[in-house]
Structure formats: structure tokens, C-alpha cells
């Protein structure tokens, strides 16, 4: 869901070679589904040993492909693949596929516990086609929502009514602090020129799509700097135990170094790639604490990981600028 930008914050055209490589990667999606179907058929039979072997083979192939793609693909290719993938999905259109046309229960609870009462100003990043934005507007909040994918920006604009206080902009996290104001004249504006916000949302699991560690840190920093209250974010968790993580990290780093021909020596343990989800980054507890600290933010609350947060082993956190304290929920 990201677009590459120039040094001045304006979007640049994605290199044609990157788009072509992204399409080739997407063509491997049927391989995942084939192995899943085979594994499901085995699971229904009596050959438990064969089932375990098949499932492990499936996971090994996925890991090998993920390592190979991360070793060989440039950042442009990964960004182009994610953009191509999400532009063709309905999952982020409320009411279509498996995405409900409402807030998740954990979002409702977090907003009730930490957000100021409406009317208040709320910033929503990676807003998709407006699931969170429209629900917040119905609750009485004034909302500024930004989203990089044109399909979803158009959906938000088409669904906005005159009485709803929603300002629609187009941008990715990489574009920040620049936004394109699509609700008005399409002019480029800085996010800090829109005034301060009383609360913010880093859209559902979108933090895990951010490619680089520095962009993740900068995204948190920008959100907490323009928000007087809490920042709600959700992300995929890195759930391995420390001892296992250390062994896995060494083995995967060596494998990726070999696959890359020795070109890349620095790897983040949470990075992975699948044809169905594109690039993802799983965030560990220590990493979110470190990112928050370096972004001048305090971690007010972090929920225990659960599948109830709209994704496999996902959690949410509440952040706030260190320069201003908010009460913790009882």
C-alpha cells in the first residue's frame, strides 16, 4: 500500500522493472493454494505422519521463497508488489469479503477507554476505503483520513456525505509529512499544517507493511508530534521465544546471505514475504519499545497478542508523546 516518493515528498512513477517483477511474484500465489489444498486433503485422512510431512514441506517452501524474495528483491519491487496486491483486493472495502462495516470490538474498547469524547479531531492513516473513518464520523468525530491506494481514496470520496466531517487525503507513510488533499483542490499540504489532532489511528495492521525500520520510527514520531492525545496502532507480532529467536535468526541470516550472493548482510528478524500478503514485518515487544523511545513516545498500553484483533497473532498498542501524559485506563 506504499508508493515510492521523491526527495520533496511528491510521488514518483514506480520503475517499470519493479512492477514487472511484482507481477511475476504475484503469479506464484496459486502455488500456496495448491499446497494448502493438498495439506487439507491429507488432514482429512488417516495418514497423520504424511500430513505432518506435507505441512512441514509447505512451510519450508514458504520460508525458502520468503528468504529468496527478501534476499533478491529491491525495496522498489516489494513496494510495487504490495501496491499491486492491495489495489486488486476487496478486503479493505467495508462490507466486502471478510472486512466488517464497523469497528472491531477491541477498537471500540480502546477508543472508549483512551480517546477523548466527540467532538474531537482524529487522524487516520492507511484508512483503506474508510472503515474506521466513517464509524468515527458517525460517532461525532471530525476526521482527517489518508490512504495511498487510488481505488480506496475514490471509495472514501464517493461515500462521503455533506454532513460527515471527513477530510480525505492521499499519501503513504513514506510520503509523510506531505499529503495530497483530495477533498479540496488536490493541493499538496504538510500534515502539520492541518492543525493538531486529539487522537490518531495508525490503520489496522498497516504498521506491519512499512518496509524500513527508519520509516516505522519516523511514522510514530510524526503521529505523536501532531497528536495531543493517544495514538492507536495494531501490528503483527514476532512471537518466537528469545532462545529460539536467536537460533532462528542466525540460521535465517546465513540462508539469506547465501541466497543473496553475499550482497546483503543486514536483516530484520521480523521481515517475511508471502504471495498472498506481500511484504510484512512482525514487531517484537522490544522493538516497539525501542521505536517508541527513539520517536519521543511513551508506550501507554500494549495488549496481549491474540487472533481477536483482526489478524493472526496481532496486538494493538496505545502511544503518546513523552512531552504530555495521559491517564492509563483502569
Concise structural overview:
This protein is α/β, with parallel strands linked by helices. It has 10 helices and 11 strands.
Describe the overall structure.
The structure is a single chain. The chain has 330 residues and is an alpha/beta fold. The model is unreliable at 1-11 and 325-330 (pLDDT under 50). It has two domains: 16-88 and 240-279; 105-238 and 282-321, Rossmann fold (3-Layer(aba) Sandwich). The chain has a nine-stranded mixed sheet with strand order 5-4-3-2-1-6-7-11-10, sandwiched between helices. A two-stranded antiparallel sheet has the order 8-9. It is globular. The chain starts with 15 loop residues before the first helix and ends in a 9-residue tail after the last strand. It has helices at residues 16-26, 29-44, 48-72, 75-87, 105-114, 131-138, 150-159, 213-225, 242-259, 285-294; strands at residues 121-125, 142-146, 166-170, 178-181, 188-190, 199-202, 231-236, 271-274, 278-281, 297-302, 314-321.
Q: Which structural class should the secondary elements be placed in?
A: alpha/beta
Helical residue percent band? 40-55%
CATH architecture of the largest domain: 3-Layer(aba) Sandwich
Question: Biggest β-sheet, characterized?
Answer: 9 strands, mixed
CATH class of the largest domain equals Alpha Beta
**Order of SSEs:** HHHHHEHEHEEEEHEHEEHEE
Radius of gyration over alpha carbons? 20 Å
Number of β-strand runs: 11
Strand content: 15-25%
